[in-house]
Structures are given as C-alpha cells and as structure tokens.
Amino acid sequence: MSLIQFWNQALQKYTNKNEVKIQIDEAAITYPDLFTKISPFRLTNGMVENYISLIGEIVLKQPNDNVRVPIGIYLFNSYPQQAPSVYLLPKQGIHTIKTGNPFIKGRSTIVIPYLMNWKPLDNNLTDLIQNLINLFSRNPPIVVVKKETSSLNYNQNNNFKQMETTKPKTKKELLIEKIKKRLIELNEENEKIIEELSSEQLQLEKNEESISSGIQSLQLQTNNYNILSEKVETQDKILSEWLETNKSQSLENINLDEILMPIDILSKQMLELSAKGCAIDDTGYYLNKLLQNGTISTSDYLKKIRSLSSEEFITIELAGKVYRTQKQALSIFY
C-alpha cells in the first residue's frame, strides 16, 4: 500500500481530514518513536471501530537513565473537536504499571489536565505528547522489569515493521536513516502538492466552462436587447412622424379608438376584457342608484348583482390568464 492510499483509507471517516494529517505528521516528526497506525478501538457500547493512532514510546527525562514509556493515542472521527484517548501499552514481562499515579485511571487509561481541558483551537498532538513527557518524567507510570531486545523501525512499504537490534547504531547509520526519513517526507509533500494542483486544474476547467456558458448567455441577451432597441426606435420614428403630421389638427378631430389599436390577439382580448370589467362596474353603480331611488325591487337588484358578480369573476380570471401568457411571451427577451 502506498502512502497516498494509506492516508486516503485512514482519513476516509474523519471530518477534519487536513487538520488530522497535519497534526499527525508534526507529531511523528517531533517524536520519531511514535508511529502512525490504523488501530481497532473498543467503544463503551462494546462496538469495535478502527481509528488513526500514534503507537510507540515516549522518552522520559530521568537523572540516571532515560525511561521509555509505551503509549497509544487514538484519534476519533471528530478530532480535533473531541479530545483523543491515551493509554499505557505495557509489554508483558517487560513493564509493570506503578500504583498510585494520579494520572492513571483504571488499568491503563491516561488522564491529565491537558486532556481534561481540551480546546480544539488551542490544543494539538505535539503539545499533548510534551505534556505527557513532562508529567511522567516527575513520576514515571511504569517500572521496567526487563529491557527489550528489539525496537520499532519505520518501513515505507508496510508502514511499520519490528526488527531486532543487536548493537547500537553508528552515527553514519543514524544519519542515513534520518536522510531516508526526510526523503520519504519530501516525497509525501510532493505527492500532496501534485494532488492539490490536479484538483485546482479540474476546478479551473470547470470555471472555464461556467464562464463560457455565461458569455454565451450574455451574448444572447445582448442580441435580444438589440432587437428590442430596433423595434423601439422604429415605433418611435413612426410616432414622431405621426405627431409631426397631425400636430396642426385639433384634438377634437382625433379618434382615439382608431389610434390605439391592439396589434395582436392577446392585446385585443385584454382590451376587450378591461372594457367589459369597466362596464360591469358601471352597471353595478347604476343598479345601486336605481335601488336607492326605489326604481327596482330588492329581489331584482340581488338577481342582477349575482349575475354581474359571476360575470365579473369569469372576466377577472380570464384577464389573469391572458396577462400571464403575455408575461411568459415577453420573458424570452430578458
């Protein structure tokens, strides 16, 4: 499994993928004896889930000898919103957990103030590990019964492997390991940059398509506006010529019904419906006058009013449909 595949699989369920990756990388570089794994974790309800974890050893600062404490840090899916869980991982026959340590709860759960006062924006893995080292250096939580004969070494292909150490490593070997580790980190960084650039390229292509579509839409609207502008100019020219021709005539000689004529079926229908609505209103007005004067009876008045109301309702509904149809027809120009 490649490093990219490993991280894609590990971060799949996490909400803050980038933040988890950054903090894990920083902690692994600062404390090279802690290694990244996908480890099973048993929840309080008995279910077992796999989480990203840092498994390995922290080195305590002791006056006579450095004590290595094996721990496991488990990051839940909502990390860093939720504080991680930290445990002692003593090895059978090698370590014994000391009793009476105030920071050890139950068999191996580590509870320190830094975890209890966890704030997502202020706290991180590197500072958490440093707090563990500082507290446990004063009061180590374990006793080393027997020194180990093996240590953990990072392997790029399998992520981690255990290998035996028969003698201390020379400065040259340590330098080579450090160089290899740095090359691996640089390779990861380059792969991440390439992925980000590829993602940006795809986004740029999508933006280009969106801009092209927007330009075509603007061109279509421009053409429609030009057509409308030409029509307005033509009508304005016709109106100006008519006014010039008839400016000397008296208004009494001008027949408005001949001047204001609808040019399409919908406009003609709307004009007729408007006239009909006005006629219904006028009829209602005069019926009220007749009723007040006692010219017609109340029963005849109510019959006529009911008939007019029905006719007015039909007229208003039909006018509304005509208006909506006209509006829809005009929308193609906007």
Automatic annotation (TrEMBL):
Chief location: other
Stored InterPro entries: ESCRT-I_UEV_domain (IPR052070), ESCRT_assembly_dom (IPR037202), SB_dom (IPR017916), UBQ-conjugating_enzyme/RWD (IPR016135), UEV_N (IPR008883)
SUPFAM superfamilies linked to this entry: Endosomal sorting complex assembly domain (SSF140111), UBC-like (SSF54495)
Protein name in the entry: Tumor susceptibility protein
Coiled-coil features, chain-numbered ranges: 169-210
Locations listed in the record: Endosome
Start and end residues of each UEV domain: 1-146
Domain SB: 264-332
Family according to the record: Belongs to the ubiquitin-conjugating enzyme family. UEV subfamily.
Pfam families: UEV (PF05743), Vps23_core (PF09454)
Keywords, ordered alphabetically: Coiled coil, Endosome, Protein transport, Transport
Gene3D superfamilies: 6.10.140.820, Ubiquitin Conjugating Enzyme (3.10.110.10)
